[in-house]
Amino acid sequence: MHRLIPESPRWLLSQGRVLESEAIIREAAEKNKVSTPEVIFSDSEVKEAASQNSKFSALDVLRTRDIRKTTFLCLLLWMAINIGYFGLSLNTSNLSGDPFLNCFLSALSEVPAYMVSTLLLKSCPRRPVLSAFLVIGGGFLLLLQLIPESLHTLALALEMAGKFGFTMSFTVVYIYTAELYPTVLRNLGIGMCSSAARIGSITAPYIIFLGTFNKYLPYILMGSLTIASSVTNMFLPETFGKVLPETLEQMQKCKSFIRRDKHASEEGKGTVMMTEENI
After folding, report:
1. Which domain holds residue 143?
2. Which of 118, 168, 223, 230 fits 141 for a cystine, CB–CB 3.0-4.6 Å?
3. Any domain includes 115
């Protein structure tokens, strides 16, 4: 199947394979009924792409303060989501009732989750959507300890609702993380976050094992961690409807909403002071 997917034109350009890159772009333009110029890439663009490709490494993901903050928050998000997602998946066999039916319902809950998250990604901002999904996933897990033991069906429904929220978060975080990192570091950023996700999936069985001491303890830990990650997510910049960053400089210009609000309030105060002076 991978032979049916074209290579990245930007990567081909960085490798000096200009003709192959232009051929892919022309083919895509033809399918979309868009005309292309005779010369797509100039010599200066080819040299710039080649120079950018050679001067970046994994250390650049942690080089500046803004990039370190983004990377650290993304690592926390990926770990928390994977702990909850795989924790609930592994805990399905421990639920009351028919284990085969429970596994079927757990898998079935993911189908609408992927469909809903895909539709929302086309028209909704990433940051509030991801935080809402995390609150849904973690909130239902925290509610489980309030359900009487006799209401097995309600407890199962809440856990499936939590799985629904984690699945949607799993979908959104992939897109959101890719939009946060610039083109030159996107693969490295996704790779580091994916490694953090594997740490989360490795930790999940040990959290589920805590249920042998207290059956609500895994739900409390996973729910609390998820709610906390939904708060940290709000410190990341919004990417919806914006041009994707291509360089480190463009990425550093994307600030979190708190910093933007602070600057806006400072500018507002300055405007008021200037108005008063003019009066």
Report:
1. 58-246
2. 223
3. yes
Angle separating helix axes 110-121 and 126-143, nearest 10 degrees: 150
**Separation of alpha carbons 239 and 125, rounded Å:** 7
165 with 193, same domain: the answer is yes
CA dihedral 88, 92, 95, 100 (to 10 degrees): 160
User: Are 33 and 169 within one domain?
Assistant: no
pTM for the structure as a whole: 0.76
Which tokens in the block code for residue 259?
A: 């910093």
CA angle (247 as vertex; 242, 251 as ends), nearest 5: 50
Is a pLDDT exceeding 70 seen at residue 180? yes
Crossing angle (nearest 10°) for helices 217-233 and 186-209 = 160
Does 210 share its domain with 76?
Answer: yes
Distance (Å, rounded) from C-alpha 165 to C-alpha 171? 10
Task: Look at the chain and report how many structural domains it folds into.
Answer: 2
pLDDT in tens, 36-70: 888 788 777 777 766 665 566 667 777 778 888 88
Tokens (6 digits) for 200 = 């989360």
C-alpha distances in angstroms, 181 versus 38, 210, 243? 31, 36, 12
Q: Are 223 and 78 in contact (CB under 8 A)?
A: no
Are 43 and 70 part of one and the same domain?
Answer: no
Give how far Cα 120 sits from Cα of 84, 125, 231, Å. Answer: 21, 8, 20
Buried/exposed 215-232: b ≥16 CB within 10 Å, e otherwise: ebbbbebbbebbbebbeb
Please check whether residues 154 and 108 belong to one and the same domain: yes
